[in-house]
Amino acid sequence: MIEGMDFSGPRRSAGPFRRLLVTDLDGTLLDGKGSMSSTTVLALERLRSDGWDISVASGRILGSALPHILAVGAELPSILYDGARIIDRRGQVYWEAQMDRDLVTEVLRLGWEQGVEVQAMGDELVFCRPQDLGTIEFFESVGVPYSPSLAGPEADLGRVFRVMFHDRSRSEGRGISEMLKSALGGRAEVVLAGNGFVDVLPFGVNKGSALKRLLDMVDVEYDIVVAVGDNENDMELLRRADVPVAISSAPGDLLALASWTVPCPEMGGADVLVDRLLKIEKEEYVNG
Q: Is domain 101-202 in CATH 3.30.1240.10, yes or no?
């Protein structure tokens, strides 16, 4: 049980059938500009009013995810840093997996000269190089602390939970991902995260393993867990769910995992998702 969290609210006492939606943000609830529409907010309010709980599972750090966590009314802790940390909206950390310093150095060395931007995620602080202008522009726009002080792969950054490479051209990401997987030899998780991002995390860390930890923490036995995502970093999340849902524009491997698909945010995907979730019956998905 998570200490200090009240699970006796009206939605949780509404009946014996407990339902949870775990949702990605970028490309799933947020459009290509990183915005959430009022239609999406209202759709998720309908879901919560019907008794559903919501948790966010995102590659973002808390600082950039928090406005969206609040907008969807997610009361449960969120899976952030692509699964490396579980944090509630007050900033309390319930679980985290830190990267080994030698691994961070090796990963940075491998990607340093690949012609991509570099991000190392510390404790709500993003380290980047002075020349990584896209990274700097983004984190300035969302008001998240960053430090353009990354002078070389051997820099001592303190605690690091995740390293990212951003291919702004979106043409080299898969090749860089395959290179990292080959070089690291199963000592780290390497996944494509959409929009040209390649994520590197501690081995065994992903959104799916974090969801398992979250479900073990909460004092609620959910009858059904639905997960929705749009990219390869959502694969393990969907595998962990009772009902996996993919955005219709997702890669083929993710679509193959999904029980059904919904449109992208720009095409009203949240309304389609919620309309279908509100029809879920226990017998259909749990007993049948």
A: yes
